[in-house]
Amino acid sequence: MSVLYYIEETNPPEVRELLTAAHLFLQENLPPFAACAIKWRIPFYALRRNLCYLNRHPDHITLGFSHGYKLAPLPGVLLGENEKLKQIRYLEIRSIEDLYSERTHQILHEAIMLDELMAKVKRKVYGKNKRRFY
Question: Among 67, 70, 77, 129, which residue is least crowded by beta carbons within 10 Å?
């Protein structure tokens, strides 16, 4: 399944429009080497590792961040902390204005910088049995 097929099979049309806009938003704002693929039946966008995903709901979409727990906390905006989600944090997108807001841009760019930073952390080898620790 491709991302475009995932978007096309979405109902209602308002949510399909939001998904299309979010897909284009991510393509515009992620670096050119970002990969997009369907994983676990939803579209994931990856740089060095899974960066973010889009998920559809009956009246909105979510823009989730795989390592969102490392992002700066924004109560009421970046959700998931109180929902027993260990690492994931997400934004609820209910309109095009929500998607293109300054806050969404800031969170996305922070996630991109975090992904780059996490990729630069080198594994170190300690002890006789050569276990790797981060």
Answer: 129
State the fold for domain 3-133: Aspartate Aminotransferase, domain 1 (3.90.1150)
Please state whether the predicted TM-score (pTM) of the whole model is above 0.85: no
Dihedral of CA atoms 50, 29, 34, 76 in degrees, nearest 10, equals 0
pLDDT, tens only, 78-101: 998 888 778 999 999 999 999 999
Q: How far is CA 52 from CA 13, 122, 133, in A?
A: 23, 23, 25
Beta-strand runs (E) in the chain: 35-39, 42-46, 50-56, 61-65, 89-93, 124-126, 131-133
Domain ranges of the chain: 3-133
